[in-house]
Design brief:
This protein is an alpha+beta fold. The protein is 29% helix and 19% strand. It holds the Pfam family APH.
Length: 226
C-alpha cells in the first residue's frame, strides 16, 4: 500500500483496491472504474476486470474484483519481439476502437456520473468537473489566469470563446489514462485493460491529447517499423 491508496492480492483469484475519499487531505475525485468496467463487461468484447463489486465506508472507496490474467505491459514490454509488439498494438487498437463506438451527447461517466476536468483552467489541488456550460467554466477559470492584468479584454474574450466542450459535440467512451501499466498481457496477447478510474464519455480527440508527452516517440517508432 502506498500513501494514497492500497492494493491487495486475495489468494490467486481476487484483488482488492482501496482509494481514500480525501487523498492527501484533498477533495474527493470521481472514480469511474466500477461503472466503466461493469458497462464494458456487459456490452462489449473488451477484456476488463470481471465480477467487480464496489462499496464505500466513511473514509474510502473499495473495489473487489477477479484478477486479470497476466502482467502489466510495462513490466514485460522490453522482452517482446517486434512481431509481438505489433500483435499487442493491433489488439489494443481494436479494443479501443470498440470502446469508442459508445457515445453520448455530453461529457459524463456511464450512468451519468461527473468527469474530472484536468485541462481547461483546472488545478491539480482542485476537483473541477467537465462541463458544457461555458459560463460555468469561465467563472472558475478567469480568476486562475496567470498574469491576468497583462491580458487585454480582447484576448480574454477569444480565450473564453475557444472553450471546446460544447453541447451537441461528439463524446466517445474513453479510458482517459491509457498507458503500459494499465494494459495486461500474457503469452504475447492483451488480456485486459484495467484502471478505468478516469474513464467516461470525453471529446473524441481527448485520448490523443493525453498522449502529448509520448506522441513523437510513438510516431517515430511506428515510422521506423512499418
Amino acid at each position: 500500500m502506498n500513501s494514497s491508496r492500497g492494493m491487495w492480492s486475495l489468494g490467486e483469484k481476487y484483488f482488492l483496491k482501496e482509494r481514500p475519499k480525501h487523498p492527501y487531505g484533498r477533495a474527493t475525485t470521481p472514480n469511474s472504474d466500477y461503472a466503466v468496467s461493469k458497462f464494458l463487461g456487459e456490452n462489449s468484447n473488451v477484456p476488463v476486470a470481471k465480477d467487480m463489486r464496489g462499496w464505500e465506508d466513511s473514509t474510502s472507496c473499495w473495489q473487489l474484483m477477479e484478477r486479470v490474467p497476466g502482467t502489466t505491459l510495462s513490466e514485460v514490454q522490453g522482452n517482446f519481439t517486434l512481431e509481438e509488439h505489433r500483435t499487442i498494438g493491433t489488439e489494443l487498437a481494436e479494443y479501443l476502437a470498440e470502446v469508442r463506438k459508445f457515445t453520448s451527447t455530453k461529457p459524463e461517466a456511464p450512468g451519468g456520473g461527473p468527469l474530472r476536468d484536468t485541462y481547461f483552467g483546472a488545478r491539480y489541488d482542485h476537483v473541477d468537473f467537465m462541463t458544457i456550460d461555458r459560463e460555468e467554466w469561465w467563472a472558475r477559470t478567469e480568476p486562475r489566469l496567470l498574469q491576468p492584468l497583462s491580458l487585454s479584454q480582447e484576448k480574454k474574450k477569444k480565450f473564453k470563446e475557444s472553450y471546446p466542450i460544447k453541447e451537441g459535440a461528439k463524446y466517445v467512451l474513453s479510458h482517459g489514462d491509457i498507458k503500459s501499466c494499465n494494459i495486461m498481457v500474457k503469452d504475447g496477447h492483451v488480456t485486459g485493460i484495467i484502471d478505468w478510474e478516469h474513464g467516461g464519455y470525453r471529446p473524441d480527440w481527448w485520448e490523443w491529447t493525453e498522449w502529448r508527452g509520448r506522441r513523437e516517440a510513438t510516431l517515430k517508432f511506428i515510422r521506423d517499423h512499418p
